[in-house]
């Protein structure tokens, strides 16, 4: 069956108007909004930074200089490697993994409670109270943590009043505020997939295990978690990607001496005006995050690309 | 088997801690909006004030940012819901293999970091403009245009997921029946599928608007020299924090709370209606019966209205004047002590006018300026101060100046422990 025949059949079953709406809508979305911009960005990242007049000229050759800069730094760099960018990059990814793991441990009991213990309007009320903080602006949520963890913030004031400390603890510099803020920001995105996965588990399985004398932790480890694996993978994937790609929270809560990799990208764009290198860095971030997610998903035997189902 | 008391207690404690962590920061932020201290804090508490809301009302940049955000939000809603609908319908008509591929492509933007989406949109339209020979003044460089497209690329995915969830429960037999009876495809779509999808489309529209309104990562790259509400708030927070941002949060949190409760109430009401458990006739009772969310929602609305009404008549000036008086008093004591520690030097001037002392004149000069106090006619007299409306306050401008953190920076002795952190934070 040829393409023309498929198209004719598609139009016949849906009507011309509907067929056009669907096909044009999806192609505009997929091509103009997603695929072409990404492809252009990849192309752009392999080109040198040039003034507009030289673009398309003899100097406009493909080069890997933008990527080399990431690990080598300036050509004359005596250290031999780009210490700042590479360290920030590594720290961002490791910190994002920790935020994800912590978030999972923190959210799992609540998701289980919502899915299997709470009932009726109580469960709905709890679910609603999970959603409300999520709709408060990301910037404002970070700001709240700044108030709490700041030099003259709530925690320091309380500790001082109680006489536990004399000098303010610098939570911002220690990145405590940042990790707390990041964990806070994505609670809902962790709980929701966990909840929908656990909810479909047959309660009898838990009862059976309990009747046979299995302790509560083994019930979770051997029955609930393996069953909810796909939900765990989805939730962790989302939290990891979003924390690694976060920009607002690190800008507001990050210490003066520690950067997040997205901030380096941002600087490349708006302080050095080197869009090409910025694009290369953005791709480095995207590709490494995807590699980590796919690798870990494979490791636990889940399926990637099933997010949101 | 019922869980033991211990297990239930532990569960309760954990839930309490969890929701405490969830709402604590928001609650603290809201409270700081009402403290007159120029650094947002809960303790030490200075004065109950509504001045930060007044400051907000006069912020022109924030207003223009808000307008941009609204425009972008509305266009994004229309675009994303349409694209999401097209995607959901299209996916439903594909075979399993192609379906998986298309599904992965159009849900991928949810996982792509917002920064990457923003950069790719910016670069793509920059290249497109150069390819077609458009200048920097053209639409391709317009911040609103770029932001709408950048945001729609992933918000459409949200909308599609919401619509797919609803579409899965649709009985396609209905469409077939309509077509058999002679309806055209468009008619069947408009009369049957669209009404069925309407609740999901409303949810998708709300989600799209909120996601657009609060988006930062993508917007900050695509908005170019313009501003949205979120980018302005972010700039404010980074340049130096003050409680007017808490006031923004206050307003947004109250609106979100009311919205969420009303949404829940409507949901409950529709459910009750479906089960025919609503009493006929009596509208008012029917509205609140078995509907705690509705009751809570109305309570929040009423509390807000009363709060605003009370705020109109409230003035923090009296309290601030008292606070200033306390500080001056402490300053005098410190000065006294200092003078006593000096051998004989200030002995002859004991009890004289502090302003003529010369001691610390540079730093204290402003505070001690007699003109500064002229407006404070009512400082000791409470009845007089309380009856005044804020607009008539003569002391307002002078006090505003006194409470400026910079003003206090030079004051070695006065209120050091309290005000120094504020000064430091302000400089960051």
Concise structural overview:
The complex is a heterodimer of chains A (309) and B (428). With 309 residues, chain A is an all-alpha fold.
Core attributes:
heterodimer; A: 309 residues; mainly alpha; 0% strand; globular; B: 428 residues; 72% helix; disordered C terminus
- Put simply, the count of helices of chain A is 15
Task: Count the beta strands of chain A.
Answer: 0
Strand proportion of chain A: under 5%
Please identify the structural class of chain A as seen in this structure. mainly alpha
Average pLDDT for all residues of chain B: 75
Cα-based radius of gyration of chain B, to the nearest Å: 30 Å
Strand segment tally of chain B: 0
Report, as a whole number of angstroms, the end-to-end distance of chain A: 31 Å
* Structure annotation, total helices of chain B: 20
Radius of gyration of chain A: 25 Å
Sheet of most strands of chain A: none
Strand content of chain B: under 5%
The largest pleated sheet of chain B is described as: none
Largest interface: A-B, 96 and 95 residues
Helix content of chain B: over 70%
Low-confidence runs of at least 5 consecutive residues of chain B = 346-428
Secondary-structure element string of chain A: HHHHHHHHHHHHHHH
């Amino acid at each position: 069956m040829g393409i023309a025949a498929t198209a004719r059949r598609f139009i016949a079953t849906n009507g011309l108007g509907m067929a056009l709406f669907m096909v044009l809508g999806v192609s505009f979305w997929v091509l103009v909004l997603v695929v072409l911009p990404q492809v252009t960005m990849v192309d752009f990242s392999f080109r040198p930074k040039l003034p507009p007049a030289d673009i398309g000229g003899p100097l406009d050759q493909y080069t890997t200089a933008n990527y080399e800069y990431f690990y080598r730094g300036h050509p004359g760099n005596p250290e031999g490697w780009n210490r700042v960018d590479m360290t920030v990059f590594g720290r961002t990814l490791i910190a994002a993994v920790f935020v994800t793991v912590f978030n999972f441990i923190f959210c799992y009991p609540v998701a289980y409670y919502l899915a299997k213990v709470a009932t009726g309007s109580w469960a709905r009320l709890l679910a609603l109270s999970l959603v409300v903080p999520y709709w408060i602006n990301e910037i404002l949520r970070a700001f709240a943590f700044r108030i709490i963890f700041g030099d003259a913030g709530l925690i320091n004031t309380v500790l001082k009043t109680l006489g536990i400390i004399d000098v303010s603890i610098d939570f911002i510099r220690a990145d405590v505020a940042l990790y707390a803020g990041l964990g806070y920001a994505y609670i809902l995105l962790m709980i929701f997939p966990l909840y929908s996965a656990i909810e479909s588990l047959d309660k009898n399985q838990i009862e059976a295990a309990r009747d046979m004398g299995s302790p509560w932790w083994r019930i979770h480890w051997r029955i609930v978690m393996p069953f909810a694996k796909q939900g765990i993978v989805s939730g962790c994937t989302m939290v990891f990607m979003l924390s690694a790609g976060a920009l607002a929270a690190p800008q507001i809560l990050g210490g003066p001496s520690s950067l997040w990799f997205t901030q380096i990208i941002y600087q490349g764009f708006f302080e050095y005006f080197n869009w090409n290198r910025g694009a290369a860095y953005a791709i480095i971030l995207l590709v490494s995050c995807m590699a980590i997610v796919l690798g870990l998903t494979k490791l636990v035997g889940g399926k990637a690309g099933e997010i949101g189902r | 088997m019922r869980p033991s008391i211990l297990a239930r207690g532990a569960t309760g404690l954990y839930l309490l801690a969890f929701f405490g962590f969830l709402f604590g920061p928001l609650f603290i932020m809201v409270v700081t909006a009402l403290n007159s201290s120029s650094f947002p804090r809960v303790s030490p508490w200075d004065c109950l004030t509504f001045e930060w809301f007044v400051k907000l009302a006069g912020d022109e940049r924030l207003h223009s940012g808000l307008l941009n955000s609204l425009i972008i939000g509305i266009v994004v809603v229309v675009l994303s819901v349409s694209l999401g609908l097209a995607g959901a319908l299209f996916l439903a008509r594909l075979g399993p293999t192609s379906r998986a591929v298309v599904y992965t492509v159009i849900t991928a933007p949810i996982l792509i970091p917002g920064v990457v989406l923003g950069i790719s949109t910016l670069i793509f339209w920059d290249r497109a403009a150069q390819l077609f020979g458009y200048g920097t003044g053209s639409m391709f460089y317009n911040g609103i245009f770029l932001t709408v497209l950048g945001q729609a690329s992933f918000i459409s995915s949200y909308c599609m997921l919401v619509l797919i969830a609803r579409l899965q429960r649709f009985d396609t037999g209905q469409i077939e029946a309509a077509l058999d009876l002679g309806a055209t495809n468009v008619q069947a779509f408009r009369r049957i599928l669209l009404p069925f999808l309407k609740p999901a489309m409303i949810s998708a529209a709300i989600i799209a608007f909120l996601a657009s309104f609060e988006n930062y990562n993508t917007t900050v790259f695509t908005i170019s020299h313009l501003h949205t509400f979120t980018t302005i708030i972010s700039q404010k927070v980074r340049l130096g924090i003050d409680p007017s941002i808490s006031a923004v949060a206050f307003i947004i949190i109250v609106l979100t709370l009311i919205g969420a409760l009303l949404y829940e109430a409507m949901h409950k009401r529709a459910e009750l209606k479906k089960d025919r458990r609503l009493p006929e006739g009596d509208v008012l009772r029917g509205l609140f019966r078995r509907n705690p969310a509705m009751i809570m929602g109305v309570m929040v609305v009423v509390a807000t209205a009363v709060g605003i009404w009370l705020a109109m008549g409230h003035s923090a000036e009296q309290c601030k004047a008292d606070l200033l008086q306390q500080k001056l008093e402490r300053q005098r004591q410190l000065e006294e002590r200092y003078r006593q520690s000096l051998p004989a030097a200030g002995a002859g001037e004991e009890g004289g006018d502090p302003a003529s002392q010369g001691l610390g004149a540079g730093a204290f000069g402003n505070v001690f300026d007699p003109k500064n106090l002229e407006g404070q006619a009512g400082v000791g007299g409470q009845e007089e101060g309380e009856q005044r409306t804020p607009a008539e306050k003569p002391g307002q401008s002078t006090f505003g100046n006194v409470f400026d953190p910079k003003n206090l920076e030079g004051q070695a002795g006065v209120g050091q422990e309290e005000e120094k952190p504020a000064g430091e934070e302000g400089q960051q």
